[in-house]
Amino acid sequence: MQQIELYYELANLVENICVTLFNAYCLVIWARPFMAERRKAKYAGIVYAAGMFVAGWPLFYISAMLVYGAVTCAAFFVLWRLDREYGAQKLFLAVTFFCLRWQAWRIAACISNGTYGLLESLKLVKDKKFWFQVYVADRSVMVILGAALMYAAVRCLLWAYGERREHMTIREFLLLVMPSVSGVFAYGIFRYYNFIYERDSGKSPFSLYGTYDLIILCYTVVCFVTIFVMIYVFRQWKHEQEEDKQKEVLARQIQDMQSHIDEVERLYGDMRRLRHDVGNHLMTLEQLYGGGNYEEAVKYARTLKQEMQEVTLDVSSGNPVTDVILSGRKKEMEEKGIQFECDFHYPQTGEMNVFDVSVILNNALSNAIEAVEQEKATVVSLSSGLMKNIFMIEVSNSYSKELHNDGADGLPRTTKSGEGHGFGLANIRYVARKYYGDMEIGKETYQGRECCVLRVMLQLGESQSS
Q1: What is the pLDDT of residues 341-360, one digit of tens each?
Q2: How far is it, in rounded angstroms, from Cα 320 to Cα 261?
Q3: Three-state DSSP class for 312?
């Protein structure tokens, strides 16, 4: 082997090492936001780089398509093994990365081939040393350009998709992955026809400077734009879904508040009527007792007592609004056969908006009622406590199933398909943070039974505007 050929092989080796390491780095950037522990994404990069180095060893003669596919699958397996949640999302990341890797470096290669072909067509000089220097410069520019394109492509797709771990349905997965799958198939087709052309003509298809490279360049650009647009449209669609859901939740809360207000107005009207008629009732009782009609007087007194109970709330929490909310929830639970243990007291000190408290109580109790409806021991407990300026609200309910929290925001995943996280818990956390507090939810043994316990901490004082 001539010395110049050894230099060419050495230059190719350095190029392959740089490309592989940078691809591994981009894979880590691409996968990191979607791992529960972001630092673990580096292991996928290590596996990718190791797989490429092993497959590129001179003793192995493996198809490039097979190598890239196998190494990408290995990286996906590592991601899934380290974090087994959201497997469909991780598979989407792997397939998309495979396509991005091909597109970015193929665009760089097309530009490099065009530049190198232009220099060859000029036939400036036939000195081997000169052309080796040109080759090294060309390869260096290609590596820099490819790395820039790869990094920019990853950042663009992260911006379009959002750095968010989430459940992905089969339909959503197919919608997002099909543009990348078509790009992967196109890569396989190009590789196959390259092989056929080289076998039949004895020349590389890249010797056809101009047309061939231009076709591939145009396709790769269109393919990437298609992937980007599809992901961007998908994310906007998901945002619209979330906004619609939030509006629905807000409308439901406003409706609940309106019903509470109506209930308060009804009770106030009944109390005014009773107060207005109390003189008449006392005079009637006096006449009945004075006339010796004791049985009728007792019956009348019982009727009056029952009527007074109807206008009296079952719960006394220290605030008329929360009284109405808790009384309504208590009646709802009694109708469903749920035992309600209530020890809630509205804080009499500090600045707190009762509407914010009603959001917490309504959402927390609604979630608790839904959770215990299929449980054998149906018990819901509500309590509160005040320590200095910290107000604690605690809601627990019987719960024997497993509670799976998402590492992204710590909120439990709902079992309802297509809804993602419940907006009720998100609204509770939002209200808590208005008061410089927070919430936690988990499963624990509470009062001798398996329970799901929600704790909300609020700092009393001037509430923050939303």
Answers
A1: 888 988 887 778 888 888 89
A2: 10
A3: coil
